């Protein structure tokens, strides 16, 4: 057997010396001899031991059994009991400390060496088994974690599929209703135009009225179709950032002109352009979608005679836009849903809309890596703040 570092804990000095001599004949190193549990613990605190020979009856307050319990807790090294007692009570106490071996005095050196060898073998196998058990538990934990993560991914995928299914159904429903009304209006107005066109000049006013109805319906139809196509691309991850140099003033004026032309309300748009560059590099289509939708909503949800403020400035490479209205506002309890698809607040009444505009705005802002926030109070109005990075 290979040499071991051994601590002898024996209150009989003669027995301890005889044991030391016997063990050293087998090339073992004795790191210390103690006659009490307290001294044994002091030696172990300073020196490593491969095994401890432990007498049950010791000097001091700690007996061999209690000392062994402490060694098991702190050092996890094998302990071989040495005792002349073999009564049932003593053996019961000994078993409770899970000793590596138990030797009855007197013993011969051959028996002792065999016990030590078995104790070391038992200790190593137990530690190997514990290591394997720990590795198995870790593998089980990791496997459980992987399965849980896979389950989450599957759940998310199923939820996404369900949402897409619902979205498709709602798009079909909304688009069907959205197309039906303007097409009916276009058809009836076209028929009336044909009738009035056959008459004399006095019907010119009516012709103009129905022509305006046709134009408005076509605009609504085109807006709805644009929104549907946009989300078709968004769901297919086909909305890309395509920057190019553009004239900012021209883009903003175009947005304002389009919104004014399509408005049915007598609402004034106050455009205030601050210190903005003549040209910027950004995605004109995405910028147009953002400003057109926000400005259209501001006008649509305002009352006749009210005004909408559209302010635009540039600072530190960011375009800052502020669009304010004094219209119906957004109910506080519904504001966290504002950018959800198809969401329409409960206070919109008979005002037409698909509930897609603001979700389009949010998607465009995200693609541009910008920010959008808002503040709103019912019956007082809404203000949107947009911050978009640009290159001059």
TrEMBL record:
Q: Which SMART domains match?
A: HATPase_c (SM00387), HisKA (SM00388), REC (SM00448)
Histidine kinase domain: residues covered = 174-392
Q: Cite the EC number.
A: 2.7.13.3
> Which Gene3D superfamilies does the protein's record reference?
1.10.287.130, 3.40.50.2300, Histidine kinase-like ATPase, C-terminal domain (3.30.565.10)
Keyword terms: Coiled coil, Kinase, Phosphoprotein, Transferase, Two-component regulatory system
* Enzyme class, first EC level, given as a word: transferase
Under InterPro entries, the record lists: CheY-like_superfamily, HATPase_C_sf, HATPase_dom, His_kinase_dom, HisK_dim/P_dom, HisK_dim/P_sf, Sensor_HK_Regulatory, Sig_transdc_His_kin-like_C
Keyword Nucleotide-binding (UniProt): no
Under catalytic activity, the entry for this protein gives:
ATP + protein L-histidine = ADP + protein N-phospho-L-histidine
Q: Does the keyword Translocase apply?
A: no
- Per the record, the coiled-coil ranges are 118-164
Q: Which GO terms describe its molecular function?
A: phosphorelay sensor kinase activity
Q: What Pfam families does UniProt report for this protein, alphabetically?
A: HATPase_c (PF02518), HisKA (PF00512), Response_reg (PF00072)
Response regulatory domain mapped to chain residues: 5-120
Q: Which residues carry this modification: 4-aspartylphosphate?
A: 55
PANTHER family (UniProt xref): SENSOR HISTIDINE KINASE RCSC, TWO-COMPONENT HISTIDINE KINASE
This chain belongs to the protein called histidine kinase
**Species assigned in the record:** Cecembia calidifontis
